[in-house]
Amino acid sequence: MNNRQDARLERVLATLALVIISLISLANVVVRYFTDASFAFTEEFSVFLLVILTFAGASVAMRSNRHIRIGFAERMFPRLRTPLILVQWLASVLVLGMVLWYGGQFALEEYQWESESPGLGLPNWWYVVWLPLLALMMLIRLTQMTIDRLRGRLADEP
Questions:
Q1: Which residue range forms the structural domain that includes residue 11?
Q2: Which residues are registered as beta bridge partners of 123?
Q3: Which residue windows are transmembrane per the record (predicted)?
């Protein structure tokens, strides 16, 4: 199975975020060097794009079985492989479920309160809404990876 195809959306998001961060940071350095001033938006956008990069990259890692997990226990107790995989899935679902729930609540509150970002005055929910969306993508990729591992379609070690 070609896992590169499975998380294409997250790969594109992570790549775009990294490219944009690089470009605006480079532009900011060049402008600061020549004018002793800097672009006001670079820090705000960079932090936002780093969150997207982190969550999208984690989703790709999740789908390709390269996420952080305790493989030692699986190797130590091979007869407990299936229950251990399910426990790992359940623990990850609980954590990502909380990120999804509370991130969604936070995004909704930011939208309802019409909060604005301190630097540029843009609606805060534009930034925050990506947290629950990408947590949902991670949940989907986690479940896909877990099913593939349980069915033997994906090696336990990447």
A1: 3-150
A2: 116
A3: 12-33, 45-62, 83-104, 124-143
